[in-house]
Amino acid sequence: MKKIKVTKKALANAIGGILNAAAEERKKDPEYKKLFDSDGIDGLLRRTEMTMTSAALDCMRVLKEKFGYTKIREETFRLIMGLPLIANILEKRIDASEGMCCCTDKTFYLLCQVIRKAQEAK
Questions:
Q1: What percent of the chain clears pLDDT 90, i.e. is strictly above it?
Q2: For FRET with 61, which of 14, 18, 28, 116 sits at 20 to 30 Å CA-CA?
Q3: Checking phi first, is residue 99 left (phi over 0); if not, alpha (psi -120 to 50) or beta?
């Protein structure tokens, strides 16, 4: 078996190509295209907030319909509305204290536990 030497430059080019291809694919998404129709940065931020709120509300509807949470508690609502920020902070803390291995999986496991506990609280 012949060994192939991979240089840093070749690896960087390959990763860059994958990221560029993903970015080009994303540009075809109608929801992504709508962001470009925004009127200035203010409009972009408003449209982004609406999209994120809509996704959070969809998540809460699924919690109700699929998982039987008939009433979404305030703690669950706040966690879902702030999910990107909360997940990012938690992931960084887990990475700092335990290392990078599985920190994303650990983050979402903990977030699921928080939602379960909040929903079970009386």
A1: 61
A2: 28
A3: left
